[in-house]
Amino acid sequence: MRDGTEVVVSSRRGRIQVGVQLTDEVLPGQVFPAFHFPDAAVNELTSGWTDDVTSCPEYKVTAVSVQPA
Questions:
Q1: What residue ranges do the domains of the chain occupy?
Q2: What's the CATH number for 1-69?
Q3: Closest residue by Cα to residue 62 from 36, 37, 44
Q4: Contact (CB, 8 A) for 15 and 28
Q5: Which residues fall within 8 angstroms of residue 65, CB to CB, at 6 or more apart?
Q6: pTM above 0.90?
Q7: d(Cα 12, Cα 54) in Å, to the nearest integer?
């Protein structure tokens, strides 16, 4: 896989297609999608769970698979 390769990222809740950028700044076994851009639709992957006290959604812990598009 190389930078720019299109992949499908899937979770129990949804799936998106994005280009990858490889880096050694993210630990092996983890992905870090840019969630600041609405076109990426990363929140389609996240759980519907919210914190009981703050009602803040859990955006940063979601199991996904990454496959070539």
A1: 1-69
A2: 2.40.40.20
A3: 44
A4: no
A5: 9, 10, 11
A6: no
A7: 24
